[in-house]
Automatic annotation (TrEMBL):
Domain (FAD-binding) ranges: 295-362
InterPro entries registered for this protein in UniProt: DHP_3-monooxygenase (IPR053212), DhpH_subs-bd (IPR054707), FAD-bd (IPR002938), FAD/NAD-bd_sf (IPR036188)
Alphabetized GO MF terms: FAD binding; monooxygenase activity
Domain 2,6-dihydroxypyridine 3-monooxygenase substrate binding, residue spans: 163-291
Presence of keyword Ribosomal protein: no
Keywords on record: Monooxygenase, Oxidoreductase
Protein's recorded name: Monooxygenase
């Protein structure tokens, strides 16, 4: 049994902490935030590998994981279908996964209000100090502290998030608020709408209390829109009182003026079904989209995982699944090599290139979105082609493509 520290108590950290604890290790998780992390995320596309990671974490996976859809559909600006594609998927939510993982992990090992400030290591251990003055020591440290990882900033400060040039408006709308037209033509499907150089997508998720009964569910949407880094982005990350949040604006701080503007544009350029959803979503929020591509994820007794290691733009729908995969691989190598740098090196050998491929595929999907129609030459045939490609490539299971090294088409 080894002493292992996990930094970050969101989905990635909870996967690692649960799996390592089940292997019999003495795991302590340090999370900066105080209170529940609920309310941070929205919808999550599941893949078989995500269910595998939940099982490894000791969680039974059944139909209550999420809402099943059987089809994808792309809507034109007039609300008519431009194309459809059969594809069965289970759509869950961030908070569903968070509760499953958090309730499975002993609360006395999940320490909150622990803002990790420094990490250091010697031949036999790794040491951590927190802002509150507390310190911890362990044989290994697994850092799953997100896109702006404090651990990564210490061991590899040169690895920085790079802004992709666009933001995503996100939110969830109650099914019970929607018109029959939107319920009949969109609600039950993984839907898309493709205005020039932009992309709207959405799918049904469970409602309050993980209720998956018809009438009680919600529709989760993500609307990607270009925003220049120095102008539009700064404006959007500034609240109604003029306070600027450079690393991300809290959901409830998003300016009502920006929400009103966004809804107006939605009425002009999106399918009416999506315009209705945006109108009836109580608290839309926004996130700037970044890439993080690491050239190194292991530093002696310290490993980076989850968004601390790689962030692929969400088009690939892989962030949580990737974090679960990485947790499994770390635990498997610790089981084989013990809690040693050799185990982490084996993790790096297995996952570094895969992580880079996920980022590359997400960039490819993002570039495709940005390129389509940007020249203003979208006849109805090219729009249909775009729709077919976007439906076939967005948020699909790419585990086989990753193993074969084909996550990005060879022609690029
Ligand atoms: C628009 C959008 C849509 C997405 N859709 C999907 C999807 O469909 N499917 C999917 O799989 N993924 C999706 N993702 C990605 C997914 O949300 C993340 O990849 C996933 O949550 C993994 O996160 P993580 O645990 O590594 O990091 P985070 O969730 O960022 O958690 C990091 C944790 O570390 C804590 N922390 C930070 N600093 C410190 C510190 N110094 N000390 C202690 N604790 C610290 C933070 O408080 C936080 O709790 C999406 C992302 C976005 C932006």
């Amino acid at each position: 049994m080894a002493k292992i520290l996990v930094i970050g108590g969101s989905l990635g950290g909870l996967f690692a902490a649960n799996i390592l604890l089940r292997q019999g290790h003495d795991v302590t998780l340090l999370e900066k935030a105080i209170g529940s992390l609920d309310g941070r995320g929205a919808g999550i596309v599941t893949h078989d590998a995500l269910a595998d990671a939940l099982r490894e974490a000791g969680i039974a996976v059944d139909d209550s994981l999420g809402v099943a859809v059987s089809k994808r559909v792309t809507l034109g600006a007039d609300g008519e279908s431009l194309g459809e594609m059969p594809l069965s998927q289970i759509l869950t939510s961030w908070s569903r996964l968070y509760h499953l993982l958090k309730e499975n992990f002993p609360s006395e090992r999940y320490l909150q209000g622990k803002n990790v400030k420094t990490v250091s290591q010697d031949a036999s251990s790794v040491q951590v100090t927190c802002e509150d003055g507390s310190s911890y020591e362990a044989e290994l440290l697994i850092a799953s502290d997100g896109i702006r990882s404090a651990v990564r900033a210490q061991v590899a400060p040169e690895i920085q998030p790079e802004y992709a040039g666009y933001i995503a408006w996100r939110g969830v709308c109650d099914e019970s608020h929607l018109s029959n037209y939107t319920l009949d033509t969109l609600f039950n499907y993984f839907g898309f709408c493709l205005p020039n150089g932009e992309q709207m997508l959405g799918y049904p998720v469970a409602g309050s209390g993980n209720d998956t009964r018809p009438g009680k569910r919600r529709y989760n949407f993500v609307w990607y829109r270009p925003a220049s880094e120095d102008g539009e982005l700064v404006k959007l990350l500034t609240d109604a009182d003029g306070h600027y949040y450079p690393t991300g604006i809290p959901p409830l701080k998003v300016s009502w003026k920006h929400i009103a503007e966004m809804r107006k544009v939605a009425r002009d350029i999106l399918a009416p079904q999506y315009a209705e959803i945006l109108e009836k979503t109580a608290s839309p929020f926004l996130q700037a989209i970044y890439d993080v591509r690491s050239d190194q994820i292991v530093f002696g007794r310290i490993a980076l995982m989850g968004d601390a290691a790689f962030v692929g733009r969400p088009h690939v729908g892989m962030g949580v699944t990737k974090a679960g995969d990485e947790a499994i691989v770390i635990a498997r190598h610790i089981a084989q090599f013990g809690a040693t740098p050799a185990a982490l090196d084996a993790y790096s050998n297995e996952r570094l290139t895969l992580g880079q491929q996920v980022v590359a595929r997400a960039q490819y999907l993002g570039r495709y979105m940005q390129a389509q129609g940007s020249k203003g030459t979208r006849d109805s045939n090219s729009l249909r082609r775009n729709a077919d490609t976007v439906m076939a490539e967005t948020a699909i299971d790419i585990s086989t493509l990753l193993v074969e090294g084909k996550a990005v088409p060879e022609s690029l």
